Fold:
Amino acid sequence: MKNEKEFRDAVYEKARLYEKKRTARRRRLLETAALCSVCVVIGLSAWLVIPNSGFEEDASVHTTESKSGTDGAENTSDTGKFQEGLAQSTMEGSTYRSTAADATYTTEAPLFTATTAISTTAFGTETTNSPRGTEFLLEEDVPSSAEDTVHHVTADRSFTLSGSIALRTRFAVLKGTEDLLAELNGLGERLSEFDRREIENTYDDTFFEENVLIFIPRHMTYEGYEVWFRSGGASEINSVGKELSFKPYMLHTYVIPRENYDDLNHLKYPHHP
Amino acid sequence: MEKDLGALYYRRFLDGDESGIEEILKLYHDGLIFFINRLVNNYATAEDLAADTFMELLVHKKRYAFKSSFKTYLFSIARHKAIDHIRRESRYIMLSHDAPEAAELADIESLEESILKSDERRRLRALIETLNEDYATYLHLFYFEELTLDETAKVMKKTKRQMANIAYRAKLALEEAMRKEGMSV
Structure:
């Protein structure tokens, strides 16, 4: 028989354990609901955007070319398909594929508005000690002439970014290890096993408690894009736009502390005049 | 109307005064374990289930709407917990013939001492235990916890009409049992 104090302590301990389980259960439910919502949104978007042929040119955000060497061939990759949140494992390999050496882009408004903004104080420059920026190679076949193509995008706001940086074709905002795994699964064999393990080991649950991870695959055919955003953002993109002559596709990872994430403005793909 | 002390203490607790829950524990500890023990026939289990019952007050603060008496609310939870336990354990204590161990016996006797207080009440309790489950539960709540018919109906999840029938038959059965024991009715 417990005495008064022991019984009271037992009651409070039971309450504490119950609350702990309840919090964990709610978090799992929220995560599942978020995943389901994103799946539905992306599925609907894909259904609306992708025609029967499987490639969508006019759904892309386009830029104008500033160099010659183009002959009007369409780039049929998913350029400019910004997707906020998870990269779906159902996304095809062609997402990252450029099927034409040269691309012509029309000046169309972006179809997607990401709800994450990334501000930078060192945009376009590669810092020597950039612990938050990482590159990973993605295997991809890109015709060599693509390397000669440079695209410049002009933002219609006044922020000017120095240096040349990669144009995003898509990016993913990863808020947890489940997001990360889904994104890695989507990349499939194009990411080496070694790199995959390194990513998984680096960005674990502890990391995600305090940070959000941005995945940006960078296509060599694009250079020099500008992003406009609200000033005051404290996150940095440290390693962007490194020219590579023989590796056509890189996956960049960027870390944003969670405390800054929610304060950032919408990221909008630049408009062309 | 008699003051519902339990409701007063719980209101204090909800308003941020932890001493409210302490008072509730003191007020209902013995009676609740006694009630649950009658259902599960195991003191340690009854004590644990009583702790689970009080825990509900801490984690589900919005459930009690202050419409019924606090005791009714508390004993409803306790009965629910006990029945869940019985279902899980797949045995019904009224049919159980397990003898309690010595230490447990001492606990039960100590509890009964504080609740029953007199030989007469002890004999009454012993007689009640010979009756069927619904009668015994009603009589326990009526005699030892002093709940009204309505309150007992809420605890036992019966309609008022059902409870009235049970109450009538339970009292008849108890009277019969008391006559057989030579007790004055």
The longest helix of chain B spans residues 19-40. Chain B touches chain A through 18 residues (CB under 8 Å). Confidence is low (pLDDT under 50) at residues 92-97 of chain B.
